[in-house]
User: Fold this.
Amino acid sequence: MLKKIIILSLTVFIFISSVSLLWGESHPSISMELYNTVYRGEDDWYFAGSGRASLHMKSARDPNVQGAVVVDFMPFDLTGVSSSASESTVDVTKAYVKVRFPGMKMTLGKTRLAWGDGIVFNSGDILFGSLNPLLDLTQSELRSETAWLTAINIPLGPFAFLEMVALPPGIDMSDSEDPAAGDISRASGGCRAYFTVLNTKLEIGYLYKGEEKVALDVIGHRPYLSMQGNVGPDWYMATSAAFVTEQQRNEGNDAGWEDSWNLSFGLFHMQEAGRNNTLNLRLEALCFPYQNWEDQGGRHSIYGLYLYPELTWLQGSSLSYSLRSVISPLDGSAMITGGACWNIFQGLILQAYASFFTGDETDTYAWDRGSVWDDDLDRIQGASFMMGARYTY
Assistant:
C-alpha cells in the first residue's frame, strides 16, 4: 500500500509540475485543514490527527478560457464518509477547462455541475445524488463529489439557458493490475432547461444514468423538476424519480419508480442583528413517499423523511458559530454538530467542533452501535471533539 501511495504521489507531483510549466501565469493556492480529534470508538476513547490538504491551480484570468486543477490529500477519514476511510488518499478531485465560444460555453474534464438547489438534500441533483443522510457536518462544502464530464451550455436569454451533459463510465479498478474502461452501456447523458416565470426559477431536465455515482444513487431514466423563489425567505424545492430500462429489468432490477421517487424542500433566511452581526437560518427536508414511515429497527433502512436544520451566527467579520443537524424523525435519531470559527489572521481560521449521535444501536444515527458495529463502516461511536485550524495561502 505504501508503494502505491508513493507512486501516486510522484505521478501527481510530475503532473502538477508539467501544468505549472504550461501555465506560467497560473494562480496556485494551498488550503490545509488540520485537526486534533478525540473520539469515542468501539471500546475506548481515542486521540488522532486528521484533516486534509488541497492544492488549487487556476489559469490566468481570461474572458474566454479558464482552467483549474485541484489535488486533495486526506491522511485519514475518521467519519467513514470517504470511500477510502481507512487509508491515506491522494486524488485529483478537479481538472477541467471551461471555454466560451460564440453562442455557447463548454466544460470539459473532472468537475461538478450544480443541478437543482440544496446544500444537503437536493432531489434535482440527479448527476451526483444529494440524498445520502450520512455525511460529515464539519466540512465547509457538504456535497463535493466530482466526475469526468463534458457539458455544453447554450444561453437563451438573460436568465435562461439549455445545458447538455455526457458522463463516461468510471474505470473498473477491481483488478488493480489490469484496470478496464467501463462498457458504453454504463455511460450517462442528458440535458436541462433553465428559465424564469414570474420571478420563479424553473429547471426541468432528464438524465439517462448508466451507473451509480454515490450511495443511494439509482440508475435508469432520471427526470427531475426544480423550482426556486423568494417569499421573504428564499425557498427551493425539487422532485425526481428513476425508471429502469428494459435491459435492467431483464437483468433482475425490477424496482418501480415509486421506490426511488423523492422530493426535497428548503428555506433559507438571512437576518441582520445589530450593526455587524448576522443570523442565518436554513431548513431542508427530504421525503421518500413510498419508503418506510415506521421504525424498521435496521440501520440500513430508508425512511420517508429526513430533516436538516442549520443555524449560523456571524459576529463581525472574524467570529462565527454554527449548529447543524441531520435528523431522522421516524426512528428518533439525529446527528448534531456544533462549531466555532475565529478568523484570527489573514488566511488563518481557528476551528473547533463537537459532534454527537443520538439513537439506539440499529437507528440511522446511534450513540452506541453495540452488537451491530461494523469495522468497514463505523469509526466514531456517539461523540467526537475536534480542534484545529484551516490555513489558505
Notes: The radius of gyration is 22 Å. Helices lie at 2-22, 246-250, 257-260. Residues 126 and 222 are 7 Å apart (CA to CA). Confidence is low (pLDDT under 50) at residues 82-86.
